[in-house]
Amino acid sequence: MAFSQGIFVLILKVKSGEFGGIALLEVIYKLVSSIINRRMQVGITFDDAVHRFRPGRGRGTGTAILEVKLLAQLQMRSDKPLYMVFMDLKKVYDKLDRTQALRILKEYSVGERLLCIISTIWANDTMVPRQAGYFG
C-alpha cells in the first residue's frame, strides 16, 4: 500500500558532519496527509501553548522563545521557581502510543472514516533503509 511504505535515507548534515534521516514517501501519502491535517485543524482547537502547525497565527519557534524569555524575566521578579517542559514532537513520534492517540482523536470528534484511514496507515507502517543504492 502506497500509504504505509517509505524509504529511509541518510543525509549528511553540512554544518555538523553528522547524518540525519529522511523518509521518502509516495506523493499520494503526502496528499492524503495534507487533507487529513487541514480537516483536523478546522475541527480541533489547539491550546495557546502550542506553537507551529497553526496557519495564520504567526506563532512559530521564534514566538515561543520570546514568550519563554519574557516569562522567565517576570518569574525572576516574583522570586518563585519556574518549571517548564519542552517537547520536540518530531522526535517523539516513534514513541507515540497510537491506540491512545486514536482514542483522543475520537474524543475530539474526528470522524470514523478519518480514524480508519489513520489507523490503517499506522498499522501497516513500514520503513525500508537505503544507502548507496542498496535497500536493507
Explain what the structure shows:
This protein has 136 residues and is α+β, with helices and mostly antiparallel strands. It has helices at 27-43, 61-78, 89-92, 98-107, 112-123; strands spanning 5-12, 19-25, 126-131, 134-135. The protein has a four-stranded mixed β-sheet with strand order 2-1-3-4. Helix 4 (98-107) runs antiparallel to helix 5 (112-123). It is extended, with a radius of gyration of 19 Å. The chain starts with a strand and ends with a strand.
Structural key phrases:
single chain; 136 residues; alpha+beta; 5 helices
Fraction of residues in H or I helices: 40-55%
Number of helices: 5
Alpha-carbon distance between the termini? 19 Å
Report strand order across the widest sheet: 2-1-3-4
Low-confidence stretches: none
**SS-derived structural category:** alpha+beta
Sheet with most strands: 4 strands, mixed
> Radius of gyration, rounded?
19 Å
Count every beta strand, where a strand is a DSSP E run of 2 or more residues: 4
Q: N-to-C SSE series?
A: EEHHHHHEE
Strand content: 15-25%
Output mean pLDDT. Answer: 77
The geometry reads as: extended
